[in-house]
Amino acid sequence: MVLVFDVSADMAMFRKPYTTTSLVSFPFPPPTAVAGLIGAIAGFDHGAARGSWRADFWRHLSGTQVALSFKKAPSWMMTAVNMIKFKSPSGDMGEHIQAKHQLLKKPSYRIYLRGGAVYPELKRRLASGEFVYTPYLGVAWALADVVYGGEFAETEVIAENTWVNTVVPLYEGVQVDVLRSGAVHRELVPYRLDEERRLQETVNVVYLDFKNKGRLWLKEKGKLTVSQVGEERVAWFGTW
Amino acid sequence: MSFTNRREILFLYTVKDANPNGDPLNENHPRYDEDTEQVLVSDVRIKRTVRDEWVRQGKRVFVDGEPKTLKARFEELKGETGKGSGGEVMRECLDTRLFGVTFALGNESFSWTGPVQFKWGRSLHAATFEFIQGTSAFATEGRGGREKEQRSFRNEYKVPFALIAVYGIANQYAARITGADDADLEALAEALWQGTDNLITRSKNEHKARFYLEIKYRTGFDGKIGALDEKLLLCPADGQELTRDRQKALRRLDEVLVDVTPLVNAMVGKKDDIETVRIIKDRELRLKGEDGLKALGFSNIELR
Q: Which residues of A fall within a CB distance of 8 Å from B232?
């Protein structure tokens, strides 16, 4: 069975690593951000009060798989946020940090989840419109609205040549039909951290360019698992 | 004891001939959404307003706005509180209990997500942005210490009028970690209102608090209505259509009514989960659907 829920916010920022003075965002929450979102809803404390590097919620996510689709095309804005530079004793504005932020405007995504020990608790929380820690999209002020879509049966898509609705991880053997898809974008996203917030694994993904109203087509799905969930075709990230 | 009831907060204020929140890398142009021409106000600005008011009231805050290093500020607070560790000192500060903190000094490193999280504020209508030039008060010193005979110009942006909505959540589970209690939330409500009225600086004059609504849910309720700011509609007082151009031409609060009907409907849906609702309203603000709000029976509306 597959849990389906939608998340949206007024703005969001899923910060790319090594964007220190100009904060650049992924266009969608990478699997690591989805993991944090699941942890917040289900109520797994990250433990950062005992050490800022801690990400205890990962221990609860073993065996879980997620997938993600865009509910609307990403739109962007750039602005700067005036932050305090604590390391400098001077008081003028020049001693603050005016960090450029690339923000997503009115983002909205659909998240699919299957397997793992978190499943029943997440389902209970989603179905009753509850969350333990406040869910947000990337940054604490990007308060998220979470809407439960339901629990759906899935059937595996066997055909090699298939369309998909979701972001597609480029696992071994996956071949995207770019001509038929129109245009696609590619990103390298963090996929899994350990409980001390160290990056364990990244994955290359592709997603459809939204100027093209078509579908993302695969020539070969290789080691990718694709499921039919309701009327949607879901390409799963690997099991955490 | 930390607070045990989840809350949702909605706060409205007006800005007249002022800059609600300048973008420092865009010549201090007021932040705005290019698509909708709505004014934006960062959560950092909103929390600065609150912190400044707490400082005025003599309450202990960590980020006090004074120029000093983290180490210097921490040493000051250690002296004031008699506490030793970062965690102990941060628990003595009102702002870190409510808004959280990332602390990294010496061997101590921790991060608290604040129980109170605010979204960026957004005006309920499209606004205009005026570029104003003026003459500076004094000439600068020229070569050889001689005074220049001409004064320079200063540039600034102003928003003629904006009615801005701010939405926030207070989460009881995060409060267990930071120790924020009911009195802290009361201090927040007062500082939002008073702090906004007290923003008397050149760029922030005139800011005026107009409406505060706080939904306190019953103990054990873990849900929310969500995005209360998006459950308000702005209606023109004259009944004519409020086109984009007319929104941009708004200059006074009495030109509009704030329709709270969608908000009331959402609250009716959560009636069994709501314990109390606190409402403060400025006398000049006109609400549409106010009777529905009163009929919920949770609160009287306090007029200021």
A: none
DSSP output for B214-267 = EEEEPTT-------GGGG-EEEETT-S---HHHHHT---GGGEEEE-HHHHHHH
Cα distance between residue B284 and residue B291, in whole Å: 17
CB-CB neighbors (< 8 A) of B222 in chain A:
125, 128, 130-132
- pLDDT for residue A88: 55
Amino acid of residue A105: K
Which residues make Cβ contacts (< 8 Å) with residue A226, sequence separation at least 6? A156, A157, A162, A164, A218, A233, A234, A235, A236
CB contact under 8 A, B69 and A87: yes
Query: Average pLDDT in the B240-250 region?
Result: 92
Q: Are strands B301-303 and B274-281 parallel, antiparallel or unpaired?
A: parallel
As a whole number of angstroms, the distance between CA A43 and CA A134 comes to: 9
Decide: B288 and B257 in contact? Cβ < 8 Å.
Answer: yes
pLDDT the model gives residue A90? 52
Q: Which of A11, A45, A98 sits opposite B24 (nearest CB)?
A: A98
Contacts of A49 in chain B (CB under 8 A): 87, 110-112, 177
pLDDT, one tens digit per residue, over A225-238 is 999 999 999 999 99
Q: Which chain A residues touch B112 with a CB distance below 8 Å? A: 48-49
| Residue B102 sits at the chain A interface (C-beta within 8 Å) | yes
Q: Could you give the ipTM of this predicted complex?
A: 0.87
pLDDT tens figures, B102-155: 998 888 899 999 999 999 999 999 999 988 888 777 776 777 767 666 777 778
**C-beta separation of B252 from B125 below 8 A:** no
The CATH number given to A2-78+97-239 is: 3.30.70.3120
Residue of A nearest to B178 (CA): A49
State the average pLDDT for chain B. 91
Residue B3 has pLDDT above 70, yes or no: yes
Structure token pair of residue B266: 């959402």
The answer to whether the Cβ–Cβ distance between B174 and A134 falls below 8 Å is yes
Amino acid at residue number A177: D
Please tell me the predicted confidence (pLDDT) of residue A86: 58
- The low-confidence residues of chain A, meaning pLDDT below 50, are 91-94
Min Cα distance A55 → chain B (Å) is 11
Q: Is B169 on the interface with A (CB under 8 A)?
A: yes
Q: Residue B238, Cβ neighbours under 10 Å: how many?
A: 9
Inter-chain CB proximity B110 and A129 less than 8 Å: no
d(C-alpha A25, C-alpha A13), whole Å: 5
B interface mutation test: which of A134, A136, A137 has the most B CBs within 10 A? A134
Residue B163 corresponds to which amino acid? L
How do the domains of chain A map onto residue ranges? 2-78+97-239
Angle between helices A119-127 and A31-42 (to 10 degrees): 70
Tell me the residue length of chain A.
Answer: 240
